[in-house]
Design a protein that fits this description.
Blueprint: E1 3-5, E2 8-10, E3 17-21, E4 28-33, H1 37-55, H2 59-75, H3 77-88, H4 92-114, E5 119-120, E6 137-144, E7 147-151, H5 157-170, E8 174-178, H6 185-197, E9 204-206, H7 211-220, E10 226-230, H8 233-245, E11 250-253, E12 258-262, H9 268-280, E13 290-296, H10 300-312, H11 322-329, H12 349-364, E14 368-371, E15 375-376, E16 379-380, E17 383-388, E18 404-410, H13 413-421, E19 425-426, E20 429-432, H14 436-445, E21 452-453, E22 469-470, E23 473-474, E24 486-493
Parallel strand pairs: 7-8, 7-10, 8-9, 10-11, 12-13, 12-20, 13-18, 17-18, 20-21
Antiparallel strand pairs: 1-2, 3-4, 5-6, 6-24, 11-23, 14-17, 15-16, 19-22
Helix pairs in contact: 1-7, 2-4, 2-6, 3-4, 3-6, 4-5, 9-10
This protein binds NADP nicotinamide-adenine-dinucleotide phosphate (NAP).
GO molecular function: succinate-semialdehyde dehydrogenase (NAD+) activity
Keywords: Oxidoreductase
Active site: 253
C-alpha cells in the first residue's frame, strides 16, 4: 500500500519500502513506503492548507462526510477486518470487537463537536483593567490546534487510530497519521475511506516508516502544532521533551502495569475467571490489561490454583481461514464469553522474545514458573508466575506486554495499596471484593486514571475521559474531552452592550 500525501497515493521519494508480514505465519502481506524527511515536510506543508480547507466546510457538511465514511466502513467491513486480523496475527473475534467500536467513535466525536460552543461571560461581574466591563461582550471560543500528528501503536490499530483521528478532525484540525510499522495496513485503508467520503486530502494524510525516524521528524517539525500519541512511556517522554521546547501540546496515552487486587471476601472462582480474561485478550497486548495480580495471602493458593487451571485451558494458535471464521463471529458483540477463541501471536517475534526475556528475568529474581514459559516464533504461551514479591521489577515498573500473570501476595489492605502504588505507572486497576466500602477506599487510594471495583481493569467506555496518571500519560481521550484538541481564545466586543 502507499502513503496518502495531499490526497495522492504516494511512494517514498527515494523509493524505499518496508515489508509487512503476518506475524503468526510469516506470510508476506504487502509493502509500505519508508518515508523520507522530504515526504514528511511535504505532508506538513499540505496540512497547513488542509486545515483551512477542512474548517471552511460547515460542521453539518463535515458531519455528512463522516456519515458517508461510516457507510463506506460498513461496505468494506470484511476486507478491513481480514487485513487487520492478518497483519496483527490475532483471532478475528478480537478484530471484530475493535471494528464494532470504530464508527461510533467517529460519529460520537462529531456530536461532541456540535457542543463545542464556548461561553458568553456575564458582563460586569469583575472590574478588569478599566473597571467598565458592564457593557463588554466577552466570548470564550474554541479554536482548532492546527496540524495534529496522530501516532498510533500496534496493539489496537483501528480503535486507537479512531481515538486520535476522530477528535482531531471533529475539532477542525488537519491530521497527519503515523501508523505502527508492524501493522500499518488497516490504518491506511481507513484513511483511504475517509478521503473517499470527502475529507480533503490535505486535511488527512498518512505517512509511513519507522517511529524513530519518521515519527521523530514529524514531532520535531515546527509546522506541527500538537501530537496525540499512544504507545510506550519511553517514547512518550521523548515526544514530550521535544514538544516542550516549543510549548506545543501533546496528549500521551502510555504504558501501564495495572494492579488486579483480590480481597479475601470475594468469590475466588469469579476472581480467577476475571483475572484470566483480563490478561488473555489480544494476547495480553492491551494497555489496561491487568498485569500484576495482588492477592490476599489467605486465598492466594486457592486463587493461583484456579487461575492456572483456566490459563492452561487457553488455546494459542492462528487460523488463516479468516473469512470463514469471520462469518461465525460476526454478530457476536458480547465479548464477555470468548471461551473457545484462541489467542494469536504477539505482534512480532521481537516482541515475543522481549516477553521471554522479561519472564526469565523475573524467574532469576526468584519467581516460580507454574505454567507456560515457552516461545515459538511470535507466539508466547500463557504463563503464570507465583512467588512474586513486591521488590521484584515485575511488581513495580516492568510492564510485560504479553500473556503473563505474575501473582504477588499481601496481608493487609494498606500493603495491597502500597504494592499497587509502588509502580511509576498509573493507568488503570481493579479490586475484587464484596465490600463496596472497601472497594471504594481502594479505588480512591490507588493512584491511577481509572479503577474498577468488582471487575477487571480492562474497562473503557467511549464517554469516559480515559487517561493515565503518573508515567502512564498526559491528557485524556473520550467523547467528553474534545476541548483537548482545541485552544481557547477570548474575544471581547468592547462597549458592544451600550
Ligand atoms: P511504541 O514503541 O512507543 O510505539 C508507538 C508508536 O510510536 C508507533 O507508531 C511507533 O512507530 C511510534 N514511535 C516509536 N518511536 C518514536 C519516536 N521516537 N518518535 C515518534 N514516534 C515514535 O509502543 P508500542 O510498542 O507500539 O505499544 C505498546 C505500548 O503502548 C505499551 O507500553 C502499552 O501499554 C502502550 N499503550 C498505551 C495505551 C493507552 O491508552 N495508555 C494504549 C495502547 C498501548 P513504529 O511502529 O514505527 O516503531
Amino acid at each position: 500500500m502507499k502513503m496518502l500525501i495531499g490526497g495522492q497515493k504516494t511512494d517514498s521519494s527515494d523509493g524505499r519500502t518496508i515489508d509487512v508480514i503476518n506475524p503468526a505465519n510469516g506470510k508476506f502481506l504487502d509493502t509500505i513506503p519508508m518515508a523520507t524527511e522530504e515526504d514528511v515536510q511535504r505532508a506538513v506543508d499540505n496540512a497547513k492548507k488542509g486545515q483551512k480547507e477542512w474548517t471552511a466546510i460547515p460542521l453539518m457538511e463535515r458531519e455528512k462526510i463522516i456519515q458517508r465514511f461510516v457507510r463506506l466502513l460498513e461496505e468494506h467491513k470484511k476486507e478491513i477486518i481480514a487485513v487487520c486480523t492478518r497483519e496483527c496475527g490475532k483471532h478475528v473475534g478480537t478484530t471484530i470487537f475493535e471494528y464494532n467500536q470504530t464508527a461510533s467513535v467517529f460519529t460520537g466525536y462529531m456530536e461532541s463537536a456540535k457542543r463545542l460552543d464556548g461561553q458568553l461571560l456575564v458582563p460586569g461581574s469583575e472590574p478588569g483593567h478599566d473597571g467598565r466591563t458592564a457593557s463588554d461582550m466577552i466570548m470564550v471560543t474554541h479554536e482548532p490546534l492546527g496540524t495534529v500528528v496522530a501516532i498510533v501503536p500496534f496493539n489496537a490499530p483501528m480503535l486507537l487510530y479512531s481515538y486520535k483521528v476522530a477528535p482531531a478532525l471533529a475539532a477542525g484540525n488537519a491530521v497527519i497519521v503515523k501508523p505502527p510499522t508492524d501493522n500499518p495496513l488497516t490504518d491506511i485503508m481507513i484513511t483511504e475511506l475517509l478521503l473517499e467520503a470527502g475529507v480533503p486530502g490535505n486535511a488527512l494524510q498518512i505517512v509511513t516508516g519507522s517511529g524513530s525516524k519518521v515519527g521523530d521528524w514529524l514531532v520535531k517539525n515546527p509546522g506541527v502544532d500538537a501530537v496525540s500519541m499512544t504507545g510506550s512511556t519511553q517514547v512518550g517522554i521523548g515526544i514530550a521533551e521535544i514538544m516542550a521546547k516549543r510549548l506545543a501540546p501533546c496528549t500521551l496515552e502510555l504504558g501501564g502495569n495495572d494492579a488486579f487486587i483480590v480481597m479475601p471476601d470475594t468469590d475466588i472462582d469469579k476472581a480467577a475467571a476475571s483475572a484470566c480474561g483480563a490478561r488473555k485478550g489480544n494476547s495480553g497486548q492491551i494497555c489496561i490489561s491487568s498485569k500484576r495480580f495482588i492477592v490476599h495471602n489467605s486465598v492466594i493458593e486457592e486463587f493461583t490454583e484456579k487461575l492456572v487451571k483456566l490459563v492452561r485451558e487457553i488455546e494459542v494458535g492462528y487460523d488463516d481461514n479468516v473469512e470463514e471464521m469471520m462469518e461465525k463471529c460476526l454478530g457476536n458483540t458480547d465479548r464477555t464469553n470468548t471461551k473457545g477463541e484462541f489467542i494469536g501471536s504477539l505482534i512480532s517475534e521481537r516482541a515475543a522474545k522481549e516477553v521471554e526475556a522479561q519472564v526469565a528475568h523475573t524467574i532469576s529474581q526468584g519467581a516460580k514458573l507454574l505454567c507456560g514459559g515457552q516461545r515459538t516464533g511470535a507466539f508466547y504461551m500463557p504463563t503464570v508466575l507465583a512467588g512474586v514479591t513486591k521488590d521484584m521489577d515485575v511488581a513495580k515498573d516492568l510492564e510485560i506486554f504479553g500473556p503473563v500473570w505474575p501473582v504477588i501476595g499481601f496481608d493487609t489492605v494498606e500493603e495491597a495499596i502500597e504494592i499497587a502504588n509502588g509502580s511509576r505507572y498509573g493507568l488503570s486497576g481493579c479490586v475484587m471484593t464484596d465490600d463496596w466500602k472497601l472497594g471504594m477506599r481502594v479505588a480512591r487510594e490507588v493512584q491511577t486514571g481509572g479503577m474498577v471495583v468488582n471487575g477487571s481493569s480492562v474497562y473503557r467506555n467511549q464517554m469516559q475521559p480515559f487517561g493515565g496518571q503518573k508515567m502512564s500519560g498526559m491528557g485524556n481521550e473520550g467523547l467528553t474531552t474534545l476541548e483537548e484538541m482545541t485552544k481557547i481564545k477570548n474575544i471581547v466586543l468592547k462597549g458592544f452592550l451600550g
